[in-house]
Every structure is written in structure tokens, then in C-alpha cells.
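Quick question: what would this complex look like in 3D?
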Amino acid sequence: MQMRTIEIVVGAFMLAGLISLAVLAIRVSGFNVGAEANTYSVFAKFENVGGLVVRAKVSIAGVIVGQVAEISLDQESFSALVRMEIDSDVAELSIDSTAAILTEGLLGGKFIGLTIGADEAYLKEGSYISDTQSSIVLEDMIGKFLMKQF
Amino acid sequence: MLASIRQLGQYGIDLISALGRAGNIWWQAIWRRPRLANAHLVFRQIYQLGVLSVVITVLSGFSIGAVLALQGYNQLVKYGSESALGLGVALVLVMEIGPVVSGLLFAGRAGSAVTAEIGLMKATEQLSSMEMIGVDPLQRIVAPRLWAGFISMPILALMFSVVGIWGSSVIGVDWLGVYEGAFWSAMQDGVDFKSHVLKGIIKSVVFGLIVTWIAVYQGYEVEPTSEGISRATTRTVVHSSVAVLVLDFFLTLVMFNF
């Protein structure tokens, strides 16, 4: 075959590869560029985050408004420090909002649910949510229940 | 007794020297300064190895995606979670089946051709005549094929995954009636570019390297008879298929944090 034809066909082949990559990135994995810039970080301390993972969703009234970015241990109080990235569109969350770790369905993953307070001041980059409710640990509940029995 | 021990030692030494020769071929062909003048040879090989494998890859990808959708739907519908069909099929295709099956197809379609071609060149003394007139066969024959395998294989694997996902959506959404929005949104929610798609691509690059390497080595070391060429071609397909599957296990082990 002519060299010219081969070059054209090979070029088309590589282009098809790039298009496939783009399809996988955008259509399949929902990859969007520069999304991280449009969030702000809010911190919350929990007694127990049992089962919460990074990239778990943060929701208000069931609507996803952000995700968990980082989970670490606070060395002073020995509680879990969770950093959440909230979409900048959702800017007016009052500072006395509460954060609770909830379970999606009976067997689903853990996520953070925010309940909005009434304060006029708003959460901003780096602020802490003070009122938190930890993950419900089934073993603890069973333990308490047994203690009541005896 | 002594003879069998000697035999065993002989096998060991043969194996190690074969590995050494294979490594030498690779080293000489790839790491020696690549010559830009040989770029047209690489294009020709990408055509031979990559473009000509597109049809078989796309056909298999579509069938596998369709079958995954059918079987997955059958199981998921029992739990009322058929909206997870897209997610399951996409993860399986992107991480495992895409790279592995297209690697196996590549070994059968392209690897065998490379071995037969180089083997015949060797049997008809073309390689030694090349050396005689001062052309290095490693640079002129082997290097373009190694590069072409390295470039084509990830492209083929990507095409395989995309066509497979398309096939599963044709069966799942258009035929079995999974809700289209849930099909795609569950997929986009669960598939991550860095931790799933990129790792699949890394796998396919490794498979492309290993398959063409085995093919080139078998062709280069062929016993110069027609029987020898047939044996070498068979060995290429067998060895590279096994290599793809075994390497897949180890790559998964390393990359997915077990």
C-alpha cells in the first residue's frame, strides 16, 4: 500500500484512540476539568466516623452539595477531623449548621448530611462545624441494648 | 540419576540465557538512540499491528459488552438494582476485560503475524544479509515493531472498552429497558478517571510491550525450518496469552492496593 495512505489510516487510528480516551474520560468517568477550584473547605470533628470514606458525598436535604476530601485524626482531642469540599454555588450555609454521618439505605455507604441552622453568619473557607453527630455504630447500639437488659 | 540432574541444570541455564537474549534484543532495539529516519517504518507497523486489528477488536468488544449487559441484568434485576448495570459493566470493561481480552486478541492477531514474518526473514537469511550490507536488523526490523505494539495496544484497549460500553447500553437501555439516566449517571458516579481508567491504560501498555516482545523474540530465535516457524508462532500465542493473564493478576495486585 502507498505510504501516504498508510499515514492517513494510521492517523485516523490514533485519532480514534484519542476519541475513545475522551469518551471514557467525559462520558464514562464524568471527569470535569477545574471542578476543584469551585469549592470551599469546611471542617468538622466527629467522635466516630466508622465507615465514612474519602469522596463520600455531602448532602443537604438529599441533594449532593460536595464531597469528603480528607479524613484524619485530630491529635489533641483524639477525634476524627473531616475536611469537606462544598460547591461554591452553595455559599449561604449558616454557621450553626449541624453535620451528621448517615447511612444510605440499609446496606449503603456512609455520607454526611448537613442540616441548616438559623444564624446570620455563614460558613466560609476553613470554618468549623461545631455541632456534629457521629456515625451510628451497630456494635455500640447492641452493647447498650444488652446493658439495659441486665 | 546424574544425567537427569545434568539435564535439569541444562534447562535452567537455557532458560536464563534465553531471558538474557530476549533482554538484549529489547535493550538493543529500544534503548539505543531511536532513529527518526525510521519513523515511516513505525507507521507501517502501526498499520499492520494496530489498524488491521481494529475490526476484530471492535466486534469482540461489542459482543462482550452485550453479553455482560445480558448476564448482569439477569442477576441485578433480582435485587431491583438494574440501574447499577452501567456501572458494573463499565468498571469490569475499563479495569479488566478491556485490556486483557484486547491483549489476548492482539497476541493472536498481531503477535503471531510478527513471529511468522520475522521467522521467515530469518529462515530465508534476510536478516543476516541485512547485517552483511551494514543495516542493523534490530533497528530496522525489530525496533519499529516494538514501538508499534507499545503505541497500538492501548488504543485498541480503549476502543474495546468504549465499544463494549456502547454495546452494553444498546442491550441494557434500548432493549432491556434500563432507565437511561440512571444507567449513565451511576456509571459517571462510580467510575473514576485516575483510579480506574488510567490503571486500565497502564495495563494495556504493559500488555502491548510484553506481547510484541515475546513475538519478536520468538521470531528472532526461530529454528530456520518451516516446522520451526510453525512452532515459534504457536509458542508466541501461548506464551503471550499466559503472560497477559499472569501479569494482569500481578498488576491488579500492585495497582489496586491489596
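Answer marked as accepted. Residues 36-255 of chain B form one domain.
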